[in-house]
Amino acid sequence: MKTMGFARLRIVDSEAHREPATRWVAHGSGDIIDNIEVFPTLFDALQDVDFTIATTARSRAKFHYYATPAELVPLLEEKAGWMNHAALVFGREDSGLTNEELALADVLTGVPMVADYPSLNLGQAVMVYCYQLASLMQQPDKNIDISDEFQLRALRSRVMRLLSTLDVAGDVKLVDWLQQRLGLLGQRDTAMLHRLVHDIEKNVAK
């Protein structure tokens, strides 16, 4: 990942990086290992993240809307104009991410393959994404309006509260569809949907 310009790495519920063998295969990336941040859960690791992308094998997930690695580039370019921190999440080598962990993501992504097997191993998958997204790491930092931070997260919370108010939060298909589609919204659409939800909330309260 360092060769592609990535420098920050977070690990959830594992101490494997402390094993001596980690440095043997790191090839000049000791600085990344030294600065690894460890969290007890994925939820904890994402608390300061504005936008989360989770990788998954298409055939094993309950979700249906995916962005390919190539499609992530314009999506993240747009998000960079109003978000400070994005995270790309990889699952366990043997079992990937759970459905509960996938539900924490704004967008799901998978590597298109001709056949389901053989699948990519974790190291191969990381390199595919790092290579595809490397161009984003060369872009200068932008000054983000603090009022725009966490707007997507706030919208998700408002939508879920509204669904509960309307007594439709138990509609799993509707909730899944909304949760997956909200992550694809741009800044203008997110702001407009905030206004729409606000107007609905006012009228429901009457």
In CATH, the architecture of the largest domain is 3-Layer(aba) Sandwich
What is the strand tally?
6
Helical residue percent?
40-55%
Instruction: Tell the overall outline.
Output: globular
> In percent terms, what proportion of residues is strand?
5-15%
H-E string: EHHEHEEHEHEHHHH
Radius of gyration: 18 Å
Numbering strands along the chain, what is their spatial order in the largest sheet?
4-6-3-5
**What is the class of the largest domain in the CATH system?**
Alpha Beta
Question: Biggest sheet, in brief?
Answer: 4 strands, parallel
The number of helices is 9
Poorly predicted runs: none
Number of domains: 2
Average pLDDT reading: 87
Our measurement of the CA-to-CA distance between the termini, rounded to an integer number of angstroms, reads 54 Å
Structural class: alpha/beta
Q: Any idea of the CATH topology of the largest domain? A: Alpha/beta knot
Classify the oligomer: single chain
Q: Can you tell me the CATH superfamily of the largest domain?
A: SPOUT methyltransferase, trefoil knot domain
Keywords: Cytoplasm, Methyltransferase, S-adenosyl-L-methionine, Transferase, tRNA processing
Subcellular location: Cytoplasm
Main location: cytoplasm
Family: Belongs to the class IV-like SAM-binding methyltransferase superfamily. RNA methyltransferase TrmH family.
